[in-house]
Every structure is written in structure tokens, then in C-alpha cells.
Amino acid sequence: MGCVTDFFTYETTKSVVVKSWTIGVINRAVQLLIITYFVCWVFLHEKAYQIRDSSIESSVMTKVKGIGRYSKQIMDVADYVIPPQGSSVFVILTKLITTPKQVLNHCPETDDKYKCSNDSYCTRNNPTSNGFLTGRCVRSYCQIQGWCPTENDTVRMPIVMEAENFTIFVKNSVRFPIFDFERGNLPGSLNCRYDPHKSPFCPIFRLGDIVRLAGQNFTNLAEKGGVLSIKIGWLCDLDQSWDLCVPRYSFTRLDGVSEKNNVSPGYNFRFARYYMNPDGSEFRTLIKAFGIRIDVLVYGNAGKFNIIPTLINTVAAFTSVGVGTVLCDIILLNFLKGADQYKAKKFEEISDASTSFGSHMFKSDQTLAGRGDEKRSTDSGAFSIGL
Amino acid sequence: MGCVTDFFTYETTKSVVVKSWTIGVINRAVQLLIITYFVCWVFLHEKAYQIRDSSIESSVMTKVKGIGRYSKQIMDVADYVIPPQGSSVFVILTKLITTPKQVLNHCPETDDKYKCSNDSYCTRNNPTSNGFLTGRCVRSYCQIQGWCPTENDTVRMPIVMEAENFTIFVKNSVRFPIFDFERGNLPGSLNCRYDPHKSPFCPIFRLGDIVRLAGQNFTNLAEKGGVLSIKIGWLCDLDQSWDLCVPRYSFTRLDGVSEKNNVSPGYNFRFARYYMNPDGSEFRTLIKAFGIRIDVLVYGNAGKFNIIPTLINTVAAFTSVGVGTVLCDIILLNFLKGADQYKAKKFEEISDASTSFGSHMFKSDQTLAGRGDEKRSTDSGAFSIGL
Amino acid sequence: MGCVTDFFTYETTKSVVVKSWTIGVINRAVQLLIITYFVCWVFLHEKAYQIRDSSIESSVMTKVKGIGRYSKQIMDVADYVIPPQGSSVFVILTKLITTPKQVLNHCPETDDKYKCSNDSYCTRNNPTSNGFLTGRCVRSYCQIQGWCPTENDTVRMPIVMEAENFTIFVKNSVRFPIFDFERGNLPGSLNCRYDPHKSPFCPIFRLGDIVRLAGQNFTNLAEKGGVLSIKIGWLCDLDQSWDLCVPRYSFTRLDGVSEKNNVSPGYNFRFARYYMNPDGSEFRTLIKAFGIRIDVLVYGNAGKFNIIPTLINTVAAFTSVGVGTVLCDIILLNFLKGADQYKAKKFEEISDASTSFGSHMFKSDQTLAGRGDEKRSTDSGAFSIGL
């Protein structure tokens, strides 16, 4: 029985209440500060009362529209978008260096690195960027075996000027699995053109605008090639109304560094189209393509009220208010007028068990204890931190 | 010496033990609640004793199998899978609108937007979706310069019915770098077909099943095109046996919104195959392809026992039990019978240093202090929260 | 007025100071331990004084260089890299099984599964891997309708030996949006070759080296195909100098499991090149390609000093030092010589309000209280934990 009664007891700390304006004000000020921090930052700003879902599920479809002219030819989407399947990463070709009718054969190199006066300059089987040296020197250039004629990518070519007016339609739908919340980026009508101010939710972007909003110059970019990103941000507070969960579009140049860097500026790649002669021999058109690559990046998270984080953080807030005492104690016990006497009250000394009883007798007298504390505290300041 | 002895002292709070059933029971109840929370939620559910590795490294390879019939032609994998290289995102073509033998030339538009009665209707160089207006009106349609004949994508085409039986083999291996733990999704044998109940670990999926499990209708999806995801989840507790770390497959429609939305439903794209006449002139076959895009998404994390988080959380648990006092103090000092007398015990008053000594003399008498407390507490309830 | 003065009071816990070497040393030791943990782990190792940005924005461009020989043909980049557009995931073809001049027609299967002695063996319209059975048995094989001749992928083919010397140039630029910090991986000059020791920052990798550093054998890999990763890690401390934020390259085989697993080893896929006869009939070259897929994976985060986390963690550190008391109390009140007398000092009993006043009178005598505590504590050990 005794055991049970003993178990069901409540133990709370014995406190000293200091009626001092100075420390009182400091104390409350610190507490106010802590409460403000929790209310404003933790709860209002960080939304600590919500559970967040950052595992956003997203699907992106893109569709480019527009017609371009290039060297007397007409280019449509099927010609200038690579890859064609409307994925989230694609390239819009803006400049082409074409080498038609290449066949596997022997021909002289075009690169001046392979200028030669006789065969000895051309070590057989050495690889060049176009093929393998045959060991022969033809028309003062080493001969190679490979795709002939070799590409000459030093020619200056124009860019597809119309590309600036091409439009990119981005269809994006996102899902937050935890809340099973689904949302798309399509507005009621698609008769619009994205504009950061006038129509910030229109998912149809003019390439020229994207380039401008990314702080780039279209002609330079189209000339050298580069990588831009369309970022779609979904930051949704599901405690608020459904239609406040809207996408935020932003645009940056991703390969910004390569732009400044002269070692290897821009973005280009080579691909080929293969043909076959009636006789069954294969030939190809090699294309060195410069273009603007667009990466559509989707990020975001959603939050919704939940009781568990709310409780935990509320408790944390309450208990944290107590933290103020650490600071106040330091002030109270060291810098305040009459600190010694506060110590006398706060600290009740009790020395080692061996001599406990005796000391106990005396130390039970507060005033003495106080004196003892004074002395002590003067020797070791660390102690008065109250830890 | 004194300094040293003073340093090696131990300071603990002086406590008041309340032998009251009411508060005792409340106190223990609250403590029990907190302990339960830590044991059940933090430790058992959240596995706070483990370190987690969420930086999952994954590689996905896919292989589609199946033969389809389309407009008297036979389509195999090389024909209907784009891109071909077995990546984690690919499209299975289910409907094709083909425009063969396109050459760069002049021809009338097919779009009724460009109906005309005379040349004045057709402003020269205006871009259409197929080319640039030449300024001439031919057979009551504006003439364009571009790929001719222009595509007519209003024709109704069938779908590849066999696609429902195509199978998708997904090879996935994951790695958790922190634990250097590697795992694959291949079972002992591949003579199987995925079934959520009968064979949940078989990595060979029938397209029709995926569509069904994603809650879609195959014919609609194949008709309009859409995006499905095969999600592979790896949630591994490495404290348990190796073969309990298994993949969980789930299926959703990613562009679910576009489905409901009439503005731009489904998924389709255009690509072309280029050919060359013996005379060197190029022509192409333009294909508007509708298809089912499959995104294979891999997520997961692994946890393993580690001493640091275990210690931290154990300490947190222990100390948190003390939090209960905040609540109990409020009850004890305000709502409990004899609250005043509890205050008397708990709070020991000490007023401003200026008058300290005198006040000290009197306040040292508990009972008086008690009275002081009573009065005080009645004025400001906030105070009795014990903060 | 009284209310105000009462509000501006400061309340601190009344403490018992134990002057005992044993407990004193333990106390300080525990505190030292906690401080060390915070200083060394939380602050120095975990950099708790920084805010971290893990939402790294990255763009990757790749360019493969090298010339290969394959069955008397020369292959250049346009021939052996798929997809061509220099994305972060690409395949270098190392082995090809080519089936040229396929036309849609009727022909016998090559697979022994379809050996037959008469038509009854070949159920009409059954799909094979190459087409649909026509129901006829021709030359002791079931006849199919499909792309003819059917592929025979059992032939042994050589690999592109030169592939080992192909070089992969990786251009990567990253951005940490929160700090708006941008960085690229290009060194001053590109006349280099990556070497883990000699030139660890050179972004030009020899395929053979990557394979070796991933602990693989080139010939096996090229023969069967596989997936390697080039991981680029950016772990930047922005409090330090700009040029200490450098990429770390590492290499692993991603499909490591499939290697051990015999069910489906390696990596291969099929694609086709389409041609057209002058008469307008289409034919194709089917290619079963084995290759080494390279995934360039970028990860990383950046940290920078920020006052908020610094404050929070400093406070946490300070308060945590108090946690030591939990442990020390247990020792002090249970295992230490004179524990009872410590309890006497620490605990001041107060029984239920009903009998409060009386008990109050007596219990106010410390020694009695002590006795009461002794008795109590002996019954229930749990209690002496001081919670």
C-alpha cells in the first residue's frame, strides 16, 4: 500500500521568487523574445503545425510550335526538336553545319594538324577526329579512311531567326502522394502567352521571352548554343483553398558558367541521317547542331495541418520559455546588486556524506549557507552559471 | 585548492514532493503518455534508433516485348518504342497518323483557317503550322511553302489493339551508398507475369495490367495517349534479414489532370523519317504519334541501427518526461484544493536587494512566504504557470 | 500596481549544492562529455552554425570523342553514341548485331521453338518475337508474317576494341539557389586526362579508366553491356574560399546486381534505320546493340554561416548540459554513501491538502522530511530518478 501511495506522488521543483524590477523585466523580456520566435518564426513562418510532403510526383509534357527558315529550307517541329517525344528535356536547333553525302571511303583530312609533305608524316592507323590515317599523304594532307568528305565545321552559318518566336507549351501535373492531392498547370483557356505580370499562369512560353527572362541575349545563345531551365515551383498550403495552390514559373541559364568560360563555350552535338543507295551502299548526312536546350524542372512541397507536429512544437515552445532562466541566472547571480544574497537563497549547500550530519546542522541555517555561497561563487565563476 | 573543491561540486534542484492522489495520478498519467509516445511512435514507428540513407542510387533498364498489327503492317519493338535504348522513360506508340512522301514545295493549306477567295486573304510570309504563306490563293486555300502535302490530323485512325498484351520487363538495381548495400529486383526465374497478389515481385508487366492497376481504360488511353508511372519503392530495414528488403510496385496515371481537362487532353508528338531520292532530293514521312508514356520512378531509403541517434533520442525521451511538470504545475497551483498552500511550499519569495536583508529575515518563515504567494498568485495567474 | 510588480518578478529553481568529490567529478565529467559532443560533433562536424542548401541546380553536357573500327567499317561519334544530343545519360555502342534489308513479308522463323513438321504445328495468328504465324510450315519452320528475314542474334560478334580509348568530356555547372552561388567544373585548360591522383579535376575521362575505376573488366562489359555512373559531388562550405568548392568524381557500376545475376545479364536494345526503295516500298536495317550506358549523376549541398541556426544550437547546447543531472541524480540518490541524507535535502515533502496545514507544521522540519524521504525512496526506486 505504502508503495502505491509513494508512487502516486507529484514532485515539482522548489522555486525562489525574486521580486526585483531589473531581473523581472529582463526575465519577461527574454521570455517574450522566445515566445515571439516560436509564434512568428516556428509557427507562422515555418508552419510547424503542418506535416509536409516533399515527395512531389510530377509529369511533364512539352510541345513546341513554330515554323523556321534555314538556308532556303523550311523547318518544322519534326525537323528542329530533338528528341521529338515532348519530354521535359529537349533541344531546339538554331544553327546547323551540314555535311551531306558522306560515304565510308578514303579522303584527305581537312584539319591543318594533318598537313604533310610526304607519307612519313602520316603514321598509319593513327586515329584522327574523322578516321584512321592510311599512311599516305595526298594533296599535302594526310589521307584518312573514314566518312568522306570530312566535316568542315569552321564555316560561318546563320541562325534560325524565327526560333525567337517559337512557342513552348508545357503541360505539367503534380501529385502529393501523402495527401493524395493532384493538380495541373492548365488554366481554363490556352489562348494566352506567358507574361510574368499580365498572365503569370499561362503555360505557353515564347522562346524569346524565356531567353530574355533568363537574362540572356537570343542571338548569342542561338549562335553558340546553351541550356536554359523553366522551373515550375509548387508550394502549396493545403489548409488554404484549392485554387491558391498555383505554379510559379522561373527561368535561369543552367550552363551560366560555360558562358563566361572560353575553354568550351556553348552547346552543340553531332548526329547523322542514314540513307542507302539502290546498290545497297550506305551514305549519311552528318549534322553538327547548335541549339538551345530547355530543361523543365519541377519542385515543390505541400503542407497540411496535423495534430502530432502541432502538439510537439507547442510543448517545445512552452518548455523553451524556461530556457530564459539560464541567461537570467547568470545575470542575477553575478552582475546584479545583491547577487550574493540571491545566491544565499538559491543555493542550499550540503557537503560530503562523511561529515554530512554535522554540516547538515549548520547548513540548515540559510544565512550561513548564504555566506558559504558568497565565498564559493567568488572563487569559481563557472559555477554561478547554475549548471 | 578551494577553487578546485568548489568546482567539483554537484548542484541539483531542490524539489517539493506532493503526496496527493489527484495530482499524483495526473502526474504519472502524463509521464506514461510521454513515454508511450516515445516508445511507440519515436522508437518503434519512426525507428529513431537508426540512421537513414535516403540518397538511393538506382539504375533502370526496360525492355518491351510484343508484336503489333497496324494498318496491314506488322510493328515490332524497333517500330513502336521511342526512344529505343531501354531507358526509364519511354513511349509505346498506340496510334499513328502518317503523312508519307513530304517534300519541301508549295501547296495549299488544309486548315480551314486559311480558306480564301483571293490572294489578299493570304498575307505573304505569314507562318502557318505547316509553312509560310506564299501570298497566293490556290483552289480556295492559301498556298504555303513548306513540307507538302500538309498533314491532315483530323482523320480517325485505329489503335494498336495488340499493345494491351505487350510486356514490359523492368530491370532495376539500387544501392545505398552509406551502407554500401546493393540489391536488384530480379527474382530467381523470369517465367512469370506481375500480379499484385499472386506474384508481386515479378518484374515483367503486361501493359494492359498496368493500365488497369492505374485505374484507366486501355482503349481511351491508347486513343488519346497518356503518361503512366511504374513506381518502385525500396523501404529497407537493414537490421532485418537481407531478403526482407524487397521492391514494392505501384502504378498511377501521372497526367491524371490532363485527362479531366478538355483544353489539351492526352499525349502525342510528331517525328519524321528522312529519305533521299536518287537525285539527292530529300523527302520525309511525317508521323503524328499517340502513345502511352511509361515513367519508371524509383524511391526508397534504408535504415540501420546506429549508436548516436539511439543515445540522443533516449536522452531526449528521458528529459521529455520532465515536461509533464509544466502541465501538472498549472493544475496543482491553480485548480487543486489547497493550491495556495502548495504555492507556499513551492515558491520562496525574495524581494529586491535594496531591502533584502530585512525582508530576508521575515520571508525566511515559510508560512509568511506562503501568504505572500497566495496574494501574488491571485493577482497574476500567468505567474502560476511556473515559468 | 501590485499586479504589475507581481508580473515583473523572476523565478528560478532553488538548488541543493552537494560538496562531494565523487558526485562532483561525475557531474563535471558528464557535462564535459555533453559539451564535447556539441562542440566536436554538432558544431565542427555537422556544421550546425550553417544553413544548408541541398536543392542543387545542375546542368550536364557530355561529348564523346574517338574513332572506332567495326567489321571493316569506321564508326564515329554520330554512329556509336545514342542519344546524340550530349545529355547526362547516353550509350556508347560496343557490339552490334545487324540484320540489313528487312522488309515486311512472309518468311520462316529462325527460332527452334517454331520447328515444325506440318502446318498443324503453327497456329495461325499466334505472335512470335518477330511476327505473326501464318499457319503454314515452310522448310520445317513455321512461317511468319513480319519483318523478313528475321534476326538471328545468336551469332558471335566482336566488340569495338577502340572504345576503351574513347574520351568523355563532361561539362557540369551547378547553382545553389538560396545563396545564388554558381560554379562550373571546367579547369583553366582542357589539355588533360582525368586521373584520380595526378589530375582529379580534369573533366575528360577515358572510357577504359572509368570502367577500371568502377572495378570492372572492359572486355566483359563491352561484350555483355552494362551501366556505369560518373558521380559528381559538390560539397561546398561557402564560409571558406571560393576555389575550395570543387567537384569530386567517383565511378560505380549501377547494374552491379544484373552482372552477378544470370537471369538477364548485361544491357542491350534494338533499334532500326528506315530506308525506302525508289518504288516507295520501305525496308529497314535492324540493329541489336550492346553498349556501355553512362549515367552522369550530380549531387551536393552548400552551407553558409547563418545566425538563426547558430543561436538555436548554442541555446540547445547550453540547456543540454543540464541533462547530466538526470543521470547524476540517479547516482546521488541511490548509490552514493549518505544517499538518504541527500534525499532529505533534495526532497521537501508536502502531503494532501486535506491534512496539509498540520503536516505542514511538522514537515517544515528538514530532518523529519528527510526521514519521510528515506522511507519513501526505499519502497519505490523509480521515484528517486527524480522525475
TrEMBL record, chains A, B, C:
GO MF, any single term: ATP binding
Membrane topology: Multi-pass membrane protein
Record-linked InterPro entries: P2X3_purnocptor (IPR003046), P2X_extracellular_dom_sf (IPR027309), P2X_purnocptor (IPR001429), P2X_receptor (IPR059116)
Reactions accelerated catalytically: Na(+)(in) = Na(+)(out); Ca(2+)(in) = Ca(2+)(out)
Domain of life: Eukaryota
An annotated GO cellular component: plasma membrane
Keyword GTP-binding among UniProt keywords: no
Biological processes annotated in GO: calcium ion transmembrane transport; response to ATP
UniProt keywords, alphabetically: ATP-binding, Cell membrane, Disulfide bond, Glycoprotein, Ion channel, Ion transport, Ligand-gated ion channel, Membrane, Nucleotide-binding, Receptor, Transmembrane, Transmembrane helix, Transport
Chief place where the protein resides: membrane
Ranges that cross the membrane: 315-336
Cystine bridges: C107-C148, C116-C137, C122-C142, C192-C202, C236-C245
Key word Signal present: no
Localization, UniProt: Cell membrane; Membrane
Residues that bind ATP: K63, V64, K65, T167, N268, F269, R270, K288
Glycosylation sites (chain numbering): N165
Disordered, as annotated region: 367-387
Quaternary context: Homotrimer. Forms heterotrimer with P2RX2. Heterotrimeric P2RX2/3 has a ligand dose-response profile that is distinct from either homotrimeric P2RX2 or P2RX3.
Family assignment from sequence similarity: Belongs to the P2X receptor family.
Protein purpose: Extracellular ATP-activated non-selective cation channel. Plays particularly important role in sensory neurons where its activation is critical for gustatory, nociceptive responses, visceral reflexes and sensory hypersensitization. Receptor for ATP that acts as a ligand-gated ion channel.
NCBIfam families documented for this protein: P2X
Annotated protein name in UniProt: P2X purinoceptor
Phylogenetic placement of the source organism: Eukaryota, Metazoa, Chordata, Craniata, Vertebrata
